[in-house]
Amino acid sequence: MGLRMFKENKWLRTDQFVSSELSVFEVGYEDVHPRAPYQYEQLDYYLLHFIVQGEGLFFINNEIHQLSRGQGFLIPPYTDNNYYPLVGNPWSYRWIGVRGSGAKAIFEKAGLGKTNFIYQHEDIRQMNQLFAAAYDYFSRDHLYGALGKFYEIVSALIDDYQQETRLGLSPNQQYVIDAVEILKSEYTDSTLRIDTVAERVKVERTYLYRIFMRYLGVSPKSYLIQLRINQAIELLRNTNDAIGDIAIKVGFSSYVQFAKAFQKARQMSPSAFRKAISNGELSPRKID
């Protein structure tokens, strides 16, 4: 069980409106205890969470995100959602709920609410303090002060989003980049599994599959096999290593597994490929 962050759980609501355009409706913080997943009711306001400790899963629009300290998520109105902590390291988070005609546009400026519902902020201490200050103002019925802190929160998220936009990377693209780096650096490990890679980049395996197909046009498993085949081609061409040894070096668990994958990729066996190369009958090309 992870250490408790707050030692208590509190949340507050109000029916008062600072403005019809935007008002803080709810604030809170919680050490969340592990539980069985269940479906939350849809909200009629925007609810923004920030994780200050631990890990959990966030489900929205048939997508699953594994999130941890320094990340957060937005639940828009009238959206099916579910979220719960991971056993062994359950999350603690703060949240702030807002409503009003201007809320949608404000979150969209931060890159949230259309197709993206998660974010990351590197300065965890800063964000934690902003959420805490919003709660403090709200608890003293200082709703303008709470709204001011909400604007500071969103301003920080807008800065993050603008920086990401300048870099040309969306969160989903970053997931793919991070997963590709793991695959490239660890493809020689025959025990490397795609579900482990997904866990390390903090997304669910089926979601990683979808974004790989979207941005790379291949599944994570196919990408890994291609990496191994590419390196095997180089070794077949440039070394006299036994084919069984090459299979192990590039991450296959056996010669049989390697030969099957190679045959599927190149329409010939590894030994036939090596022979064709040595006879000048074939110019090797990597599999794209």
Automatic annotation (TrEMBL):
<feature type="domain" description="HTH araC/xylS-type">
    <location>
        <begin position="177"/>
        <end position="276"/>
    </location>
</feature>
<dbReference type="InterPro" id="IPR018060">
    <property type="entry name" value="HTH_AraC"/>
</dbReference>
<dbReference type="InterPro" id="IPR018062">
    <property type="entry name" value="HTH_AraC-typ_CS"/>
</dbReference>
<keyword id="KW-0804">Transcription</keyword>
<protein>
    <submittedName>
        <fullName>AraC family transcriptional regulator</fullName>
    </submittedName>
</protein>
<keyword id="KW-0805">Transcription regulation</keyword>
<dbReference type="Pfam" id="PF12833">
    <property type="entry name" value="HTH_18"/>
</dbReference>
<keyword id="KW-0238">DNA-binding</keyword>
<dbReference type="InterPro" id="IPR037923">
    <property type="entry name" value="HTH-like"/>
</dbReference>
<dbReference type="InterPro" id="IPR009057">
    <property type="entry name" value="Homeodomain-like_sf"/>
</dbReference>
<dbReference type="GO" id="GO:0043565">
    <property type="term" value="F:sequence-specific DNA binding"/>
</dbReference>
<dbReference type="InterPro" id="IPR003313">
    <property type="entry name" value="AraC-bd"/>
</dbReference>
<dbReference type="GO" id="GO:0003700">
    <property type="term" value="F:DNA-binding transcription factor activity"/>
</dbReference>
<dbReference type="Pfam" id="PF02311">
    <property type="entry name" value="AraC_binding"/>
</dbReference>
